[in-house]
Amino acid sequence: MQEDFHYYATYCAAYIAGYSHEESQDIAYSAQFVDMCSATLLSKIKGPVSAATTQMQLELMDARTDPVGLQEITRIWSAFHFLPRNLYAEKQGCSKRYLDKYRLICGPNGDLVVKTVELAKDKPLQSVGIAMHVLADTWAHTNFAGTPSLVINNTNDFFFELLPDEGGYTEKKIKFVHKASTPDDLENSIYTNSLYQNTENSIMNLGHGRAGHLPDYSFVRYHYLPAWGNYEEIVKDNPSDYLRAFTQMIYAMKFIRGEVSSFEKDTYDMKAVEPWINRIKEIILKRQIVASEDWKAFGEELSGRIIEDFSVSKYFDEYTKCPKKERDGTFIGKFTRGAIAHKGMVIDEICRSKNKLAGAVKQSILGFLKRA
Fold first, then answer.
1. Same structural domain for residues 252 and 327?
2. Is 300 in the same domain as 167?
3. Do 125 and 271 fall into the same domain?
4. Helices marked H in the chain — which ranges?
5. At what angle do helices 331-352 and 21-33 cross, to 10 degrees?
6. Do 78 and 180 fall within a single domain?
7. Are residues 211 and 332 in the same domain?
8. Distance in angstroms (rounded) separating the CA atoms of residues 346 and 75
9. Where is the domain boundary, 188, 216, 237?
10. 237, 268, 292 — which closes off a domain?
C-alpha cells in the first residue's frame, strides 16, 4: 500500500473507530512512518537502528544476500510489510528449504495478525499505527513473501488485468517494463516492475517487486499463475480486499480502545461505515495512481478538521533536541519502542516454527524487550 491508504485512509478508519482528530493524525503518521523508518534515517537522527521498519532502495542495493544478510532482510519485510499468514502451512513433496519460504507467504486473518493487534492494546498510539500498517498490508500484499525468492515472488507472461464491463470483466494483458522513472500507464495496463533476475535470492525477487505496484492500487483486479500455487489461477480482487482492510482496521482499533472485548479473525465492522459506504467504494474503485486527495477530503469531512500533509521530519527535532535519557518519551521514541517490540514478536514466532529464515531475536532487541 501507499501513503494514500497508510496515512489518509488510516486517519479515516481511526476517526470512525472513535479516536479524536489529534489521535487519528498520530496513528496515521505512525502507520505511514513504517514505510520511511530505515536504518539510514535512524542513524541520521541517532535512533536505534534495530528499530528499522523498512529498507530504502540504496540500502537494498547494498544488502548482503548471504544467510546473515537474508535474515536481516526477512526480519524487516516479513514483520512489517508481508506478515506471514500461516507459519505452519503444509505442502507435500517439497524440501524444508522451500517449505520455509512457502510458510512466509503473506495473507490476512492469520494468527500473527491477531498477535499484532493484541500487542498494540494498552500501548501508545504509535504502536496502534504500526499495527494498522501491518494489518492493511496483509490484504494488499497477499500471495507474496517478505523474503527474496524467485520461486515464490516471480511473475510470468500469464498476468492479466480484469477490467469491469457491463457483463462482468474483460481481460487485458498486463505489460511489465523496468523503467523506474516512468509512471505506470493505467490506460494501457503498462506497469513498472523489478528487473528479472534468475537468482533465487536476488533482491529483485523480494516481496511484490516482480508485480510492480499492482498490489498497491485499490482499484485493480488481476489474475496470474504463481509457481508456489502449482501454476493454478489466482484472482486478486483489490477493491474487495481494500474494503475489508479498511473495515477490519476499524474493528481492530475499537478492540484496542476497549469497545469490543476480543479481536477475532475474519471480522469486519461494516456497520460503522454504512453512512459512507458509497463514498468509500467510490474512492477505492477510482482508477488513479494516488488516491491521497480523495481520502484526505473524506477524512476532513468526517472530522471537520484539516488533516496535515505527511511530513517525515515532523517529530525529528523533538527527538534529537531532548536529553538522551528522555527520548523514549518522545513521539519517535515511542514509535521505535513499538517497532522493536513488534519485530521481536514476529521474529520469535517465526523462530518457534523452526523456520530459520529470519534468524533468532537479536541481542539488541532482547535487551530492549527485557527493559520494556
1. yes
2. no
3. yes
4. 3, 10-17, 21-33, 39-44, 57-61, 67-80, 96-102, 111-120, 125-140, 150-153, 238-257, 277-285, 292-303, 316-320, 331-352, 363-371
5. 50
6. no
7. no
8. 8
9. 237
10. 237
Q: Beta partners for 234?
A: 224
Q: What's the predicted TM-score (pTM) here?
A: 0.94
Q: Based on the structure, what is the number of domains in the chain?
A: 2
Boundaries of domain holding 177: 152-237
Alpha-carbon separation of residue 196 from 40, 106, 158, 224 (angstroms): 27, 21, 15, 17
Angle of the 111-120 helix axis to the 125-140 helix axis, nearest 10: 160
Same domain, residue pair 7 and 124: yes
- Could you give the 3-state DSSP secondary structure of residue 171? strand
| Per-residue confidence in pLDDT tens, the chain, 372 aa | 899 999 999 999 999 999 999 999 999 999 999 999 999 999 999 999 999 999 998 888 888 888 888 999 999 999 999 999 999 999 888 899 999 999 999 999 999 999 999 999 999 999 999 999 999 999 999 999 999 999 999 988 899 999 988 888 999 999 998 877 788 888 888 888 888 888 889 999 998 888 888 999 999 999 999 888 888 889 999 999 999 999 999 999 999 999 999 999 999 999 999 999 999 999 999 999 999 999 999 999 999 999 999 999 999 999 999 998 999 999 999 999 999 999 999 999 999 999 999 888 765 565 555 555
Q: Do 232 and 243 share a structural domain?
A: no
3-state secondary structure labels for all residues of 102-129: HCCEECCCCHHHHHHHHHHCCCCHHHHH
Q: Provide CB contacts within 8 A for 237, sequence distance 6+.
A: 221
**Nearest residue to 360 (alpha-carbon basis) of 56, 60, 67, 83:** 67
Give the pairing of strands 159-165 and 168-173: antiparallel
Please name the amino acid found at residue 17. Answer: A
The CA distance from 195 to 180, in Å, is 10
Do both 259 and 224 map to the same domain?
Answer: no
